[in-house]
């Protein structure tokens, strides 16, 4: 097991250093406050010392933490909340140890504040960058809600951002999907084009002049298939074309992460997270934010177009995870 010790001014800084040097699979082994600098024990600076390492089969139970009888009432509340999220054991252990460290710092007065400190230090909360002129290729598994979400994105761009929009459908496997998108295009008075292969799609993308071009791709079983190589290369070389992956928050976290791993990670610019209204657990959201440094572009909360969609910032994501609204 590769074990390293990190000293940083704050819990958040220590967590960033751990991820940078050891990666997302690092396990926190021990935490404590230390005093550095000063003279003869005076005027020192309080910092956080974290011992972490790369987890191995023989070390999965080596995490150092206080027993339940030694935990403060505040920490016990936070740990119960973390357990109810439904995350994997690996993520749960790290979140609980981070909560323990945050509790020792004494900066939290409520369970929500302690959870906020914990999530800020543990999760990768990246802002989604929008461009004035952009082509969004929306990919994802069958039934995740790509077509409906594309209509919601178009409505926001037109009515709130005063942008021009065009649609391209690459989902010719499902006639209903093509007709559905044509209906939305007619209502919004937007042009719509159909591509029957990768070459046609690339050609259509290159000829668009709208501010926002939304590409609806066919739902695939990405557990067994990958994106076409020709399309991957086009996204890689295009400055205005971005790939966003749609995943359901009602899916199991392990399945969502496996699905995401089938896409070239360096090309995924954002996540569209759907069906927030269809799950009582936010374990999948927590797992994705813990494991992936990919921005959340938007979250859908129902089937109504264009109402049931939101664009959460970092604070909103944290509020959801701590049980707020």
Automatic annotation (TrEMBL):
GO process terms (BP): bacterial-type flagellum organization; protein transport; SRP-dependent cotranslational protein targeting to membrane
Membrane-topology descriptor: Peripheral membrane protein
Occurrences of domain SRP54-type proteins GTP-binding (ranges): 133-323
Superkingdom field: Bacteria
Subcellular location: Cell membrane
Classification via SUPFAM superfamilies: P-loop containing nucleoside triphosphate hydrolases
Entry keyword set: Bacterial flagellum biogenesis, Bacterial flagellum protein export, Cell membrane, Cell projection, Cilium, Flagellum, GTP-binding, Membrane, Nucleotide-binding, Protein transport, Transport
A GO molecular function held by the record: signal recognition particle binding
GO cellular component, one term: plasma membrane
Domain RNA-binding protein KhpB N-terminal: residue ranges: 5-55
Alphabetized Pfam families for the sequence: SRP54
AAA+ ATPase domain sequence ranges: 132-273
General function of this protein: Necessary for flagellar biosynthesis. May be involved in translocation of the flagellum.
Family membership noted in the UniProt record: Belongs to the GTP-binding SRP family.
The name this protein goes by in its record: Flagellar biosynthesis protein FlhF
Lineage, broadest ranks: Bacteria, Bacillati, Bacillota, Bacilli, Bacillales
Gene it is expressed from: flhF
